[in-house]
Amino acid sequence: MLTDLQTRKLTRAFHLADMNHDGVLEKSDYEQYAAQMAHAFDVAADSAAYQMLNQKILGDWEMSRRMLSRDDDKITLQEFLALHDGVIHSPMFDAFVAGYVDSTLSMWRVIDPDGPANAANPFRFARFLKTFGVSQADADEAFRHLDKNGNGIMERAEMIAAQKEFFASNDPNAAGNWLLGAY
Ligand SMILES: [Ca+2]
Ligand SMILES: [Ca+2]
Q1: Who's near 180: CB < 8 A, 6+ residues apart?
Q2: What is the Å distance from ligand 2's center to 73 Cα?
């Protein structure tokens, strides 16, 4: 079972991913997500970086669809919550989170080649959150929480800690709750 706080955070993640706000996740949300990510990172539509980005995000859709959508090509909030409930309580949780973070880092290396190789700086993080409509002020505040050692960079280990806390923590003061901005 998900707790109220876990449900609240995951529901926010679902609504941010539901780009066209029709209450379900579909392929078109992922297409829009790819386009908005390209826009946020100034990736040209005819570039190799755009092609990679689009392939990765549509690959994510395909994987989610196979796991979740039960033939109707739509993912409901209930299905999304049930999947994460399963993941959070699975022995594969750590591996899932590490895989998710590494896939995000490899995407950033392609669409933001001048940024850090294995981390997020505030500029990159704000661009990433802008894709989901999160404001610069919210992104800056989130970064301050997530950069736990305060060195101005969110290293891979901090990203993994944040992602784990975002999914699983029941502590209302956990830094990782801030992963997608105010929640
Ligand atoms: Ca939608
Ligand atoms: Ca840091």
Answers
A1: 9, 12, 13, 16, 129, 132, 134, 142, 166
A2: 39
Q: Which helix (H) or strand (E) holds 158?
A: helix 156-168
Distance from the CA of 9 to the center of ligand 1, in angstroms? 18
The tens digit of pLDDT for each residue in 69-112 reads 777 899 999 999 999 999 999 999 999 999 999 999 999 999 99
pTM: 0.92
Question: What are the residues whose beta carbon lies below 5 Å from ligand 2 (ion)?
Answer: 147, 149, 151, 153
What's the pLDDT at 71?
75
Cα 80 to averaged position of ligand 1 atoms, centre (Å)? 13
Give me the pLDDT at residue 169, please. Answer: 97
Q: In the chain, which residues have pLDDT < 50?
A: none
Distance 113 CA to ligand 1 centre (A): 30
**CATH level 2 (architecture), domain 4-178:** Orthogonal Bundle (1.10)
Where in the chain are the domains? 4-178
- Cα(1)–Cα(81) distance, integer angstroms: 10
Neighbours of ion ligand 1 (CB under 5 A): 18, 20, 22, 29
Q: What is the 181 CA–ligand 1 centroid distance (Å)? A: 20
DSSP H helices, 18-121, are 27-40, 48-68, 77-88, 93-111
Residue 45's pLDDT is 92
